[in-house]
Structures are given as structure tokens and as C-alpha cells.
Amino acid sequence: MRSSALKHIRTVFAVLMLLLFAFLFIDFRGLLGEKAFAPILYLQFVPSFLKFVIAGVAASTGFIVVLVLTALTGRTYCSFLCPLGILQDGISRVGGLFKRRFRKYGYKKPYTILRYFILVVTAAILAVGGVYVLTILDPYSTFGRFMTYFAQPVVLFINNLLASILGKFDIYTIYRVDIKPYELAVYIVPSAFLLLVGILSFRYGRLYCNTVCPVGTLLGLLSKVSLFRIRFEDEKCTRCGRCAMSCKSSCIDFLNKSVDLSRCVNCFNCIDSCKENGMSYGLVRFKKPAAGEVGTDPSRRSFIAGSLVLLAGGSQLVRAQGTTPAPTKDSTVKEDRLYPVSPPGSAGLESFTSRCTACTLCVNACPTNVLQPSVSEYGFAGIMQPRMDFHSGFCNYDCNRCTDVCPTGAIMPLMIEAKKLTQIGKAVFIKDNCIVHTEKTACGACSEHCPTKACHMVPYEGKLLIPEVRDEICVGCGACEYACPTRPFRSIFVDGNPLHEAAIKPETEEMEAVPSEFPF
Amino acid sequence: MKRRNFLRSSLGAGLAAGTFMSFGRYEQAFAGKRLPAGADYDLIAVMGGEPAAMFDMGIQAMGGMGSFVKKGQKVLVKPNIGWDVVPDKGANTNPALVKRIIEHCYRAGAKEVYVFDNTCDNWIKCYKNSGIEQAVKDAGAKIVPANSESYYQEVSIPNGKKLTKTKVHELVLESDVFINVPVLKHHSSAMMTGALKGMMGVVWDRGYWHRNNLNQCIADYALYPKKPQLNVLDAYNVMMRNGPRGVSVADLSAMKSLMISTDWVAIDAAGAKMMGKEPSSIEHIALAAGMGIGKMDLAAMNIHRMKM
Q: What is this model's ipTM?
């Protein structure tokens, strides 16, 4: 096909995709139903791959679809489906506006060693050490963090401004949502990548995708042998070079009439730019290699095969390796928490931290803000992976939204009745901090909020009541810790269960007779 | 606006007709005229009906809503919407009762009726699952958010012992009439929650109250001049234990009762009695009575008891 319609179709599709993904991460009102997340996220490569390989969800076949798509059509994924790629196209476009004349990319040599080095290191660490490097480099998660850390506060600010104005006119359909920043340390990685991705795309188009992104490099290996590809129409090309100038991947060597298919992201700008119809996209034509042209390289092929095996099989080792973070048994640590608390549906710390790529989708989906990016609670390698932070909120008893949205299998679906009996941690009471003990006045904020009355009030001095915890019915929701008014240290806190346990259903007693007369 | 006008004009016909048909004796509830002298009760107590019908009967005995709401006034109706539970769990005020109170307000000529509560669970889930958001919208009133500190303004509490200043929701300050509609239930901290305790839902920083002698703070807040002109205590399905959130419906006692009073200490004292407790045993009730905020001696009150 030589029609510039290809480019326009790509642009429209990509813009819709970008808006959809931005909405997914910024949707602070929870307008999108839980069931909509899975189909939207199905084709995201890294989450789908992790869910299939590490979480063992056989239905998570999106990454296979992407591999097949790439083998057939080239890196269509990068221009049509990858939100980070599309975002970069947008930034490149803005960058182009700042150039005085027509933005010229031109052919550049690939950073071959660097890109394969990053791919191999990511794969190797995923295989033996865990998901951590992939967490930082996964394009989907990187995009998610951009939205959560940087875009959402801007949207909230505008929302709050609107809410203030409309509030004056008695309109409350738009309501204020307080902007609450996360711990400073979790901004390091997203900020660094915002700079890196921002500068590279602003100036050099898709350089990030073709140098740093491990998904881009991996798909590039396949797109080299794809069935459909961009190619020169030898008889029509006048070697004017417009195609190369319009190529965001800088992968068109027009003098030699060759396209580096490992870097081409199927944006179709070149086809659109060519006045002579000298570029086209279509089925591969086999021709005998000309002198000097590179033929098949058996060692490279075995490398590709080896990498894939390493990726797929090796990551199974993660389970056996045991990546449970070291407990922080330091008694000077406030509230002496031995383990962090991972969200319901994650089954435990190890399974959670070995699957989560810190995309922050659950952080946004959580209606109570209890899910917060961690700093060092899971160990420094687990930075940004969400934990239950009971100083920010508590887990709503009747909610399982996070379990429905997670695309990597770090949080697996949990039916609401099962969730209510899942013990993610246990409340621990510190009598010496408690108002009732120290001030000799009534409190009980913890017990008030407890949905199972695992935290209940028992007689203390005089008429006073003091909290007591029944472990077996505690679900670890953290309502007690959130509500506890003592500072700087709470009088009750939830210590995480390294492996989630089953809570017992609270017993019910019969009610005494209902009064039929007024007792006054 | 169209909706409101429509509601106003149709309320008279629709509601009065409906009420007349189901509870023929109480159609005067909408008449809005004061009852003859001698009807100046300390407390109205109704038992045996559905929440809306009991309110119709009770407010009539109080002289109708017109005694409290004048034409063109802004009214705040403040129910308990603290928890993300369905109406059957009895942790929030009955939505049918809230709806009927709003309808009475509009009938009495209210310009606008507002409803909010500073919830404990996530506010959007509370508003929705309590059934109150829908009830408020059905009645044509406005349900207002209370989830951000920016909705609150600091006020001082004259003569407060522990609570001398607190941030209250702007609607408390802006409204002409304040109707307090708590649900009666057990409470693990304050022992019982009713009209006085319900004020923790109009302030921002509840933690301060908990840290600084909770019961004294509850009583202190009642000194704040912008207090409810009318208190309606929902005792239809009373949570007798595991309050204020409740664990299961087994915690509930179907008392099918409702109380109305302008004295919020008196109404809480009656609530305590309903739950089988002496009013003086509930510390914040005793403190408030001691501070002269209201009466808790039920024997000395002019109580109008009604059964349906």
C-alpha cells in the first residue's frame, strides 16, 4: 500500500488509544467500571507476559498476539498500542514546532550494543533476580507513572478550580479532590524517565524506543523478519531523501534504499512524505542478496532463541529464589512493623513483589487512597510497588476494585465475599500509646471503624473501655490504624502477613426482645 | 430549576394524595399550621409505622414543618451517612425518612435543601450505598460533598472546655435552618450515637475530639450557636451492639420508632432509654445536660407519645 491513508489511520487510532490510556490512569472519580480494564490492557506486552509466565494465567495471551502481530506486520505495536510510544510521537510533534523549518530526522546508526545490552540485562535479571529492572523499563508502567505522578495532579488542580467556581453557583456535580503527593523518593525514577523520554523524543523522535526500551528491542528482532514491511519501490524512488527526513526512528538509509526494520515502528510517515510513491508497505518480496548486503546470521538467530527461552523459562526461577524483602526488625522503627502489607488478592509479599511493575493503576483505582507507592518497605528494589499505607487511608471492607484492574497478576481477582475473609495482616494494639490509658478519657476510634469488630472495647478502669484485638477475625484492613488519633505513633497498627491468611467470619448472636412500649 | 418547580407544584397534589390514601388521618401534616396551644412538647415519640409515615405524624404534632422552615429559606438536612453499607444494616439514617423530611421542607417553602455528612468510609460509596444520595435527588434536594478540608471553615466555640475552635462545613454557616437527622445506634467510643454525637459529621478534624476527651468535645460542640432547630432521631432499626458500623443484621433491633425534638439532649436521653440505658450513664449526654445545653430528665418532660 502506498496510500497516505495508512498514516492517517495510524494517527487517529493512536490518539484514541492515548486518550483511553490517559483516562485509565487519571480517572480519579472511578467512572470506568472494573470489567473494562482487562480488555483494554490485554495487549500490553510486559503485563501480559508477566501474568502468563509468572502468575501462570493461561488466558493472558496478549503478548503472544503482539509477537504474532509483529512477526506478521512489524512493530505495529509501538505506534498503535504502546501508550508511551504514542506519547513520544506527541512530544516529537511539539518538538517539531520549535524547529524553524521542517523537522528533519535523517538516517542515524543504531546503538546496537547498548540496546541489546539493555535487553539482555533486563531479561537476565528478570530470570534470576526478579521483576525490578523491568519495573523501571516497562513502557506501559512508565507511561502509567507519568500519568499518575505528573498528569493527575494537574487534572485534579483544574478539577478543583472548576469545583470552586461551580460551587459558588450551587453546582456540586464536580467535587474537589485533595491533591496528596506521595513520598518524595518515589518520584526519582519517574522524574528521571520523564526527562530522558521527554528530551529524547522532543529532539530525536523514537530514539528511546530504539535504544532503551527492551520491548522495542525485542519486537525489533521479530520485525526484521516480518511478513509485511516498509520498502522502497526501486523504480520510483528518486533518492530525494524526504522519507528519511520524516522518519522518527531515523532508520531509513535512502542512499542505499534500505530500511532498518528492527527500528521501524510502522508510523507510515515515510509513505506519506514521498511524492513519487517510492515507499510502500506490503508483503515481503524475496530477492537474492546483493553484494555487501547482510544475509542471515545464524549466531544472531540462536541468540534470539536463547533470549526468549531465558525470558520465559528463567523467570520461573523467581518463585524458587524467594525474593521476600528482609523484615525491618528495628525496634526504633515506629510502630515496630515487621512486614509491609500487600493488597488483598496478592496472596503475599513474595508473589506480589515478583509480579508488580509499579504501573500505579491500582493506586489510582483505589477509592480510599490506601494503596500508595512504597519507598523501602518492600526493600529498595521494590521502590514504587504499591503497599497498603494505613496513614493515607484504609481498605474499604466492601471493595475489591484493585483486584479487578491489575494487568500483571500481582493482584489477582478476588470475589468480594472471599476478600472479606482474606487476612492481609493483623492489628497490633500498643496500650502504652492509647488515649484511654494515657489520658484516662474515652476514645475507641479504632473499634468504631472496625468492620468485623476484631478490634472491640473491653472494660478498663472505672467506666472506661479499652481496645482489644481478636486476631482470628481481623482482616488487616487498617481502619483502626487510620482512625487512631495518637501521634506521632499510632496506638494500633497492622502488621503484614508475609503470606495472606484466612480470617474467620465474625460470629453473630441472637437479639433480645424488641421493646413494644416506650421505656419513658 | 425546572425540576424543583415541578416538584414543588406536584408535591402538594402527589404527596398529599398519597398520604391521605395511606394514612388518611395525617393529611394535615402538610397544612403547615401550628396546633392549638398546649401542643408545645419537649419530645414527640412515634412507634409502629414506616419511617416516612411516622415523621408525617410526628411533625404534625410539632405544628408542621412550617413552624421551622419559612418561605425562601436555605435548609440543611444532616443525616448520618457514615458508612459504606446498605440501608438494611441500620448504620446510616433511613433514606426514606431523609426523603420525606426534604419533601416537607420544600412543601413549607424552602428555597433549597442541602444534605451532606463527613463520612468515615469512602464518601462516594457511603452516599451511594446508603441510598441517601438517590433519596435526596428524588426529593429534588442537593447532596453536597464534604470530603475536602477546603469545604470547612474555622469557628470558635464559646465557653468550650476542651473544644474551643473547630472547622465546620460551610453549609452549616450558610444555611438558615439546620435539621439534624441522626440514626440511633450503639457506639463503641461514645457508647451511643444520636443527635449530639452526630455533629462529628459536620466538622473536619474528628481526631482532635478523640485525642482531647471525646465526650467533653461532643458536649462542647453543642455550645456552638448554629445548632439544629429540629432534631429527628431515626430509631426504626436500632443497632444494639457492634456499633457504629455494625457487623451483621443480627445486631439490629426493629424498634420501628421515631423521635422529634428541638432539644437535642432530650432526644438523646430518650434514645438512650430506648436502648435500655440510663441517659446519665452516657457521658456526653450527662455532660451536655450539666452544661445546661438541654434536659435529660425524661420524667419531667412534656412528651407526646403516639402509636401507629
A: 0.86
